[in-house]
Amino acid sequence: MTNITDISNKTNIILNGVPASAGVAIGKVFILEDDDFILIEKEISVDKIQDEIVRFKEAIEKTRLELQENHAKLNDMLGENYAKIADAHLLILNDPIINKESFEIINNGNNAEYAIYKVVEKISRSFDLIDDEYFRERKHDIIDVAKKVIRHLLGKQKKTLADLDADSIVVAKNLTPSDTIAMREVMVRGFATDIGGRTSHTALVAQSLEIPAVVGLKNISIQAKQGMPIIVDGNQGIIILNPSDETIENYKREYEIQISNQKYLEQFKDLTATTLDGKDVTLAANIENPEEVRSVLKHGASGVGLYRSEFMYLSRKTMPTEEEHYQNYSKVAKMMMPYEVIIRTIDLGGDKISKLGLMDIGREANPFMGLRAIRLCLKYPEIFKVQLKGILRASMHGNIKIMYPMISRVSEIKEANEILEQAKQELRQEGKKFNESIQVGVMIEVPSAAVIADIIAKEVDFMSIGTNDLIQYTMAVDRINEDVAHLYDPLHLAILRLLKTIIDAGHAAGKEVGMCGEMAGDPTYSVVLLGLGLDEFSMSAAQIPKIKKIIRNVSKIEAKELVDELLKCSTVTEISTVMKKFKYR
């Protein structure tokens, strides 16, 4: 690791982190100092304890007002789903355990600042023992709320980003939702943080704001110095401190090329994805919440190929109601009309759902292969039915389809459809309308499902391939394990054969086959997928113009010939050679 004591004398210090939001930003470091207060334990005399409790309650109330203000701002800027980040902080603030234990410490004769600090320190240690990344990350939310309370207790003014220059890149230990609101208001170039992962609130908001960002850098807030030149490479997940003149020029060229490409690709936005020989394919987008629809339409998508509904289950303590599901999906369906919206039913593990009240679920050694997705829904049909009823009601407002995730056997489809029928019957009895002929499909992301795709195709209206898990499970490779990540190969012959098997099986049954995994949005594989006969590509909205350009500049015949040649290969080297020989227009 770079020696932080003499870092200012070195150039091109590269720090590796987690790519949170794509893009490149060049500027100067603006250190956003963390609210790390020096807290001293003070003894409170018995006659002053009640005054201390009042002071604590007043600080809690000031924090509540601050969080409510954050909610309003997030809702205005990013929409209701992102505003729920502030709601999660309000839930923490109102947590009876935190308040009860803080009062106990104060009643024992300690000052309020020390009380909240000791309670949160204890909770933080327990969160460190949690295996699941998402919930482990939530300890930072608890710490953020506690710091707000302490700041009000100490009478310190809230820090702002008002002094940012136009070329500032924010560097911090962590960023709270209120920090990201401020960044939106002053339009910073990018940011980098010590902590955070792909599932952190900071990463989610960064992606929505389209601010280049890298998180999980461990100690950049210590290594970077105020005003130091910095480059944020959100594409690769790296930060370069004190970049040399040559490095800056290289990144300036990359940035200019990036902007130029974006402008060039805008011309394809409103064109159809049609090959040179007249084959039409659908380019759709993957989304997590209704607020992303604006970006979907802006980039020229022809539908939503994957609506990750599990976003509704995160950052809350209770299950979403049927009405919440209905309102959420209706909003998307209306905005996307006349295009289709494919809603994937809950794709969460029991480890996450247990936080919403299913306490009979124990910790699993391997949750990725445990009680998750359709398995969870079939074990808890009442939860599943609530979501299905919300989807069905929303189907009256647009072209909605239902998709079951992680199907591994035909019986799961039949059981899920039985629950769907129950949901329909209940709605009929309640006099609520829905699309009686709503289409139902499945995700093919488990090898067992791929092998029997011909049987599955007869049971559904459509299929969509989830390549992220399908490749991982087939190759026995953990993509985030740096020791084996190089073995994760979408062009491995086994993967190509599986994809062909799935697509051919769907077409033989007269069903369309789409893809909503990362492979669909990677330009490297566009022609291969076209040659395999894929009907729909669903991806990040920003990738759509790029993929559309490729498809419009190749013929279906050429793509088919490329695939035929690839399927004759027997080694990775041969496949690589064939791919390099193919000429893109």
The percentage helix is 40-55%
- Describe the largest sheet: 8 strands, mixed
Number of helices: 24
Tell me the structural class. Answer: alpha/beta
The beta-strand count equals: 16
Computed CA radius of gyration, to the nearest angstrom: 26 Å
First-last Cα distance: 44 Å
Count of domain modules = 4
Share in β-strands:
5-15%
Q: CATH homologous superfamily of the largest domain, by name?
A: Phosphoenolpyruvate-binding domains
What name is given to the CATH topology of the largest domain? TIM Barrel
CATH class of the largest domain: Alpha Beta
Q: Catalogue the unreliable spans.
A: 1-6
Placed side by side, the strands forming the largest sheet appear as: 1-8-7-3-4-5-6-2
Mean pLDDT: 85
CATH architecture of the largest domain: Alpha-Beta Barrel
Shape assignment: globular
Explained architecture:
With 585 residues, the chain is α/β, with parallel strands linked by helices. It folds into 4 domains: 122 residues, Glucose Oxidase, domain 1, CATH 3.50.30; 109 residues, Orthogonal Bundle (Enzyme I, Chain A, domain 2), CATH 1.10.274.10; 136 residues, Alpha-Beta Barrel (TIM Barrel); 144 residues, TIM Barrel (Alpha-Beta Barrel). The chain contains 24 helices and 16 strands. The protein starts with 12 loop residues before the first strand and ends with a helix.
Task: Please describe the structure with a list of short key phrases separated by commas or semicolons.
alpha/beta, Enzyme I, Chain A, domain 2, eight-stranded mixed beta sheet, 585 residues, eight-stranded parallel barrel, TIM Barrel
